[in-house]
Amino acid sequence: MIQTDSDKAKGKVWQLVPKQWGRLGLGLIVLVMVFALGLEVGDGQIHLAFTAPTASVNGSLPAQLDYSSVTKVYQALKDNYNGTLTSSQLLDGMKAGLAEATQDPYTEYFTASQAKDFQNALNNSFSGIGAELGKDASGNLIVVSPIKGFPADRAGLKPKDAIVSINGEDTSNLTADVAAAKIRGPKGTTVTLKIVRDDTDTLSFTITREDIQLPSVTTKTLDGNIGYMQITSFADDTATLAEKAAESFKQAGVKGIILDLRGNPGGRLDAAVDVSSLWLPSGDTVVTEKGTNGGESHTATGDNPLLNIPTVVLIDGGSASASEITAGALHDNKAAHLIGVQSYGKGVVQQLLDLGDGSELKVTIASWYRPNGQNIQKKGIAPDQAVQMSDADVAAHNDTQLAAAEAYLQQ
Q1: Cys-Cys link to 144, which of 32, 134, 178, 322 (CB 3.0-4.6 A)?
Q2: Superfamily assignment of 215-344+372-410 in CATH?
Q3: Is 359 a catalytic residue?
């Protein structure tokens, strides 16, 4: 999740799914959406915050590091490296190295350019192929989720596809953000990805990049007077669009609602709280954080036009971070039935710190817990009703999960 100082005053928090993603929980998969940086899913939640935590378990570290050995390395590079280096390049490298020393895939240093790209990614504005990137438990670069209808999806990429090379360059030593930057590019240009699927099949995809700008919420009414709301990410516009959709559903007198969070990598925590509040009574717990700054619970706001309307939430392996918070909150408060497959499993929170020159540090500061007390890190959320979609179903556009949701609400 990410939280700014002004956001704190307004009670706003951003959460991202899967490693990546202020406070991203992120989330963060690093929210990469190849469309921008690289959200790691399931990088979790993001708190956009620009002030340092008040307490830390690392308080015993010295106030200043001894940089004498670093200076020796610098001098050796300056005197011996057969290539051109710049001061900014070396400084950025040292800052990135400090973040990497945590050995936490969700803690990352962003240059000013990378920070801008990251913010664009959070708000669904990017140029690329339209996919979220992350790292799996083995450190492999993976596709968290291709975005429906965009180049990665049309080309046939799938969640958990391992990206082993980008334009012939091995990805084993690339962070999700760096990989996303390499995949991004001007509209009309192409990028070639070598993929390993299910640990067995090696595939190659050459994909043409596009400019991508997405509203985070889309709706329609299905046969049988069922309202369908799809949230592709929890962005700046999500709460407003979701509230408008909810009021529309209420006015139409729908008999049931399907909230589709499949492939949603997360985003703003406050958006997840606002969306959950559409179904929940005031005061119901949405999510609890525990970490550097102690504990904090986020509760429903009480604006609940969808209260007591039968609801199904669709989840899959690309549902991470803020998506998992929303699904968990509605499920644990008995406001929704979950259908699909196990979610991504991003249960940690990052904070985004402004370093004063446009660069930012995304640092893990907490874990988050469902209303039932569970932390889902590397576990995900299991659906009440497991429904798989085979490759044949996907190819035939046979949405068995959506069909199962409609059948459940028609009972």
Answers
A1: 134
A2: 2-enoyl-CoA Hydratase; Chain A, domain 1 (3.90.226.10)
A3: no
